[in-house]
Design goal:
There is one protein chain. By secondary structure, this protein is α/β, with parallel strands linked by helices. It has 2 domains: 120 residues, HAD superfamily/HAD-like (Rossmann fold, 3-Layer(aba) Sandwich); 111 residues, HAD superfamily/HAD-like (Rossmann fold). Helices cover 38% and strands 20% of the residues. The strands form 4 sheets. The protein has a 6-stranded parallel sheet. Strands 7-6-8-9-12 form a 5-stranded parallel sheet, sandwiched between helices. A two-stranded antiparallel sheet has the order 2-3. A hairpin with a 2-residue loop joins strand 2 and strand 3. The longest helix is centred in the N-terminal third of the chain and has 14 residues. The radius of gyration is 18 Å and the shape is globular. It starts with 5 loop residues before the first strand and ends with a helix. The mean pLDDT is 94.
Length: 266
């Protein structure tokens, strides 16, 4: 880890849980800034925009600009632009997700509509209802392309581990009989977008996350070193059940920060 110059990191379960900053998050970000180590947040949560995330983090004393945040909503828009907008001047979508995802879709010039949309785009939605599941399922059955922003089955919060986007996708998939196109981690598109932002060199990069199935797998798929923090979804007791192993394991960001600082001091 001594030669790491580019850091990719998750947000939920790594920098904070719900509205509570996690120990070491502020210190770690400050250390990266002071030592001119380039970093970027890569999150599967599409409910908020990068600007929303930046404001929330800054309220916690964690200074990260919106340019240093890429979420699955941004990756989804990039995918749609490449696959659909070049072929069709007008595009419509039914969106299940938070205001952040909806605003990103609208800003891309895609019309939001419920009946006969070209696409059904599903992200994490804390207001998910049977009616939303029904509309999404019916549109997919009529031929709409089904896109999931991310496969995270759970979401770490102050209350505990909550249902994530993957749980919502499971209900719509079961109802429609169609599997979604998944965009976020562990797929590499979102990592490629993030890497371009900071001009990262893979051999000097590290991915930090709290999930093995998305964060660590994304780092492995992208060909960079990985570090798991046990402050989110994965605990030390269930670490062995996963086939993929991170290169490093830390209790939390304070543990990672302390050890990185000591290693680079040598």
């Amino acid at each position: 880890m001594k030669d790491i110059q580019y850091v990719f990191m998750d947000i939920d379960g790594v920098l904070y849980r719900g509205h509570t900053p996690l120990i070491g998050a502020k210190e770690f970000i400050n250390y990266l800034t002071e030592h001119k180590i380039k970093f970027i947040c890569v999150t599967n949560n599409s409910a908020k925009t990068p600007a929303d995330y930046s404001r929330k983090l800054k309220r916690m004393g964690i200074n990260i600009h919106q340019e240093n945040i890429v979420n699955s909503g941004i990756a989804t828009v990039e995918y749609i632009k490449e696959k659909f907008l070049n072929q069709k001047k007008e595009l419509s979508a039914y969106v299940v997700g938070g205001n952040g995802l909806i605003s990103l879709i609208k800003d891309a010039g895609i019309t939001i509509k419920e009946k006969n949309p070209d696409l059904v785009i599903v992200g994490w939605d804390v207001d998910f209802t049977y009616d939303k599941m029904k509309k999404a399922s019916l549109a997919i059955q009529k031929g709409a392309t089904y896109i999931g922003t991310n496969p995270d089955t759970t979401y770490p919060s102050e209350e505990g581990i909550l249902p994530g986007c993957g749980a919502i996708l499971a209900s719509i998939t079961t109802a429609s009989g169609v599997e979604p196109i998944i965009i976020g981690k562990p797929k590499s598109l979102i990592m490629e977008i993030a890497a371009k932002r900071i001009s990262a060199l893979k051999e000097k990069s590290l991915m930090i996350g709290d999930r093995i199935d998305t964060d660590i797998q994304a780092g492995k798929n992208f060909g960079i070193k990985t570090a798991l923090v046990l402050s989110g979804v994965v605990t030390r007791s269930n670490l062995q059940k996963y086939e993929v192993s991170p290169d490093y394991v830390f209790e939390d960001m304070m543990d990672l920060y302390t050890k990185l600082k000591n290693i680079r001091r040598v």
